[in-house]
Design goal:
alpha+beta, six-stranded mixed beta sheet, four-stranded antiparallel beta sheet, 11 helices, 13 strands, globular, binds adenosine-5'-diphosphate, binds magnesium ion
């Protein structure tokens, strides 16, 4: 394809039909196989706000987990990941966080099965094969995509399916309790509820969303820093407790404050001097980041590119200086991006300490950004970057191609 549409630039553009056929061949099913897909996600803005009952603005992206499977009568799942080769399996009998054995990738599927059953949803066993073009462990939510694809494969056809927000909460609970990862709800929600051409304004207090159209003429570019996120889990938990302490101290003077979501600028100002210095900075980030999410939704709607650039810059600076979850590699990547003509805004995305940046780029400037990153990033950091030009796609579900 060469009609100039930005999606044509996708690094690993792969025909859907070819992908489905390859999975079916690999599955070697006795009858017609079923197919489900679930996208990864990139967060445009609203970082670390989800566990503060705040606002986030992710988009589901055309980097996806695909699963081909045939249901069977056994209460068990046997699944092969093309990335890992050997099939893994688990049984529904005795499935619980207490009896989980050594860590395996199929835990994400078992976690979803456990959480669905625990929520009263019927599940069925299957034999399947999956592939994924979501980079693993880069912050584009390969784990949530695996969970949401699993939720579709496990579901009993005809049984009532909870809406995307509820299904996301179920999968999140599985990842929290069964896998043991203390994530917020954004990743599962974005993968479940994505709307093509739109970002999703998710209110993590009530688990509801509104689709926010991306302006025509802008592309989303994700740059992977290639740096390890090894500090992430412990720092993430520390940040969560710092926010909780902030809520506790502010609530002593401000009745009705249950989460940082309830704190506005004026309330924050009144209380800043009562907070330990570090906690004050964490709270400042969250309160202003929530406001920036709403401002970004307005700027996307009106196509105000200057405003978008400023909001992205302010978010990155706040994550770097106040919340302290950026890294030299993320900062270097953003610095390279914002110097490229046609780049409207660029910031770290995801929990931080490595992973990816997200950039809003005018159509036609995607390759200039890719070239600048490939030419400069490795010299600055010694690490190999990857650049993904992505499009906002629909959320997880069955693929009907036969
Ligand atoms: P991410 O930011 O990509 O979600 P996580 O550490 O949360 O990173 O999740 C990555 C984990 O999800 C992997 O270690 C693996 O267990 C599972 N996973 C992701 N993609 C695949 C895949 N293609 N095949 C098997 N397991 C996968
Ligand atoms: Mg994950």
């Amino acid at each position: 394809m060469s009609d100039g549409h930005p999606q044509d630039l996708s690094v690993e553009a792969q025909g859907a039909a070819a992908r489905a056929a390859a999975l079916r061949t690999r599955l070697n099913a006795s009858g017609p196989a079923q197919l489900v897909r679930a996208p990864g996600r990139v967060n445009l803005i609203g970082e670390h706000t989800d566990y503060n009952e705040g606002l986030v603005l992710p988009a589901a992206i055309d980097r996806e987990v695909w699963m081909a499977f045939e249901p069977w009568d056994r209460p068990e799942v046997e699944l092969t990941s093309v990335d890992f080769g050997e099939p893994l399996s688990f049984s529904f009998e005795g499935l619980s966080p207490e009896t989980r054995g050594a860590k395996r990738w199929i835990d994400y599927v078992a976690a979803t099965a456990w959480a669905m059953r625990d929520a009263g949803l019927p599940i069925r066993g299957f034999r399947g094969v999956m592939d994924s073009n979501i980079p693993i462990g880069s912050g584009l939510s390969s784990s949530a995509a695996l969970e949401m694809a699993s939720s579709w494969a496990l579901a009993v056809p005809g049984a009532p399916r909870p809406d995307a927000g509820k299904m996301a909460a179920i999968a999140q609970r599985g990842e929290n309790k069964y896998v043991g990862v203390n994530c917020g709800i954004m990743d599962q929600f974005a993968s479940a509820a994505g709307v093509a051409g739109h970002a999703l304004l998710i209110d993590c207090r009530v688990n509801q969303f509104k689709a926010a159209p991306m302006p025509a003429g802008l592309s989303l570019v994700v740059c992977e820093t290639g740096s390890l996120r090894k500090l992430e889990a412990s720092a993430y938990n520390t940040r969560r407790s710092e926010c909780e302490l902030g809520v506790k101290l502010i609530a002593e003077r401000e009745p009705g404050v249950k989460a940082l979501r309830d704190v506005d600028e004026a309330m924050l100002e009144r209380n800043l001097s009562r907070l330990p210095e570090v906690v004050a900075r964490r709270c400042e980030h969250i309160v202003r980041e929530d406001a920036r999410v709403m401002e970004t939704v307005s700027a996307l709607a009106s196509g105000d590119l200057d405003e978008l650039g400023q909001l992205f810059a302010a978010s990155h600076a706040s994550l770097r200086d106040l919340y302290e979850v950026s890294s030299p590699e993320l900062d270097a990547m953003v610095e390279i991006a914002v110097a490229v003509p046609g780049v409207v805004g660029s910031r770290m995305t995801g929990a931080g300490f490595g992973g990816c940046t997200v950039s809003l780029v005018k159509h036609g400037s995607e390759e200039a950004l890719r070239d600048a990153v490939l030419a400069q990033y490795q010299k600055k950091t010694g690490l190999q970057p990857r650049v993904y030009i992505v499009a906002a796609v629909d959320g997880a579900g069955p693929i009907h191609d036969q």
